[in-house]
Amino acid sequence: MSRIPEIRRSPLVSLFRTLTFGITIALFIRYALAKLDINKVLNIKQPDLNIYFDLPNRTIGDFPVRVYAIGDIHGDFNNALDILSAAGVVSPVYPFEWTAGNATLVQTGDVVDRGPDTRFLFKWFDELSTQAEQQGGRIVRLLGNHEFMNAKGDWRYVHYGDLVSYPEPYIENRKYDWGPEGEIGDLLITKYNVTFKDETSRSHFMHAGLSPEWGLKEDFVNSMGHEVLEMFMKAEELPDELKGFWGIKGPMWYRGYAQLPMEIACEVASNVTKALNVDRLVMGHTPQFSGIRSRCNGQIVLIDTGLSTAYSGERAVLRILQNERTNIVEAVYRDRVVKL
Ligand SMILES: *[C@@H]1O[C@H](CO)[C@@H](O)[C@H](O)[C@H]1NC(C)=O
Ligand SMILES: *[C@@H]1O[C@H](CO)[C@@H](O)[C@H](O)[C@H]1NC(C)=O
Ligand SMILES: *[C@@H]1O[C@H](CO)[C@@H](O)[C@H](O)[C@H]1NC(C)=O
Ligand SMILES: *[C@@H]1O[C@H](CO)[C@@H](O)[C@H](O)[C@H]1NC(C)=O
């Protein structure tokens, strides 16, 4: 039998073919990338600057006092970035820096759970906080019931992506991170609080809201919160005098301001705002999926809009603008600003 003679290619032809093939692929990829809007791919949107000019002849610079507040973020960096950048608080592009000058941003807790970006969010807020301080601004970071739950070892709502953001063994490493020696644990102990009263804008901020039964002294609630937090981290039983803090009417769980019938809610809010000497109580915790909700002539402001993908509610930031003449309280959305 005669063998079919092999067609022998010169190595030069081979090389030529390989090169042509490689170059074609490279050109194709380059073309495809040029056609792609990378901002769209990364889900980065440019801020709508017109959002600053929603009222005639008004610019953000007219207001020396600017206070922003964002509610429950629940592990969703993208959505938090989306609305914070639309409101002009941070840059929409890497490295997502503070752009709000000497403004104040309050985050009312529940950064963790239901989404994967927990670790990144805690670090990001810490970096933003340093940047804000360098510009005369600040970030006030408050604790939510979900931060306490994680410190306590109640991980029912932990997102898989959060867990596997740690090296193996995941559970041990995450536990350590949330303990007193861990990075997140240390941040919670040293940088986070329970309540915050801003004297300038006469606003009180807290995760779930301060029920009248629950002591009106902020220093008291803040120090008690830290005591509870550290006991949770050490897996210690709460003594009777601290149990109320973690109770259904405590500062981490109360839903009265969001759910009580109008008349009663307004009476409670009126009593508590008077006692605290503020104009409004701002809180997260009870989601309002269609947007920031104001009750009782603005004495109650509910800012948890379920902005994380887990809920897909509206993305919103509360903005308080103040100068010698006026004090404007409004909800900033990506496409509109609504006066409250
Ligand atoms: C806005 O500015 C224009 C031009 O300066 C002025 O004519 C107009 O009255 C102003 N409008 C308001 C609402 O102040
Ligand atoms: C922020 O800066 C502006 C302009 O420099 C100043 O008028 C204002 O008092 C500052 N506000 C705060 C809260 O420091
Ligand atoms: C928490 O607030 C109290 C005032 O009530 C303050 O003394 C304390 O320094 C604050 N702690 C942190 C970690 O910000
Ligand atoms: C509000 O305060 C008044 C006067 O102290 C008190 O009589 C009333 O019971 C309070 N209302 C509520 C709902 O706490």
From TrEMBL:
UniProt-recorded Gene Ontology molecular function terms: hydrolase activity
Calcineurin-like phosphoesterase domain boundaries: 66-288
InterPro entries membership: Calcineurin-like_PHP, Metallo-depent_PP-like
Residues annotated as transmembrane: 12-33
Pfam families (UniProt xref): Metallophos
Statement: the UniProt record of this protein carries the keyword Transmembrane: yes
Keyword annotations: Membrane, Transmembrane, Transmembrane helix
Keyword Membrane: yes
Name of the featured protein: Vacuolar endopolyphosphatase
Species name: Schizosaccharomyces osmophilus
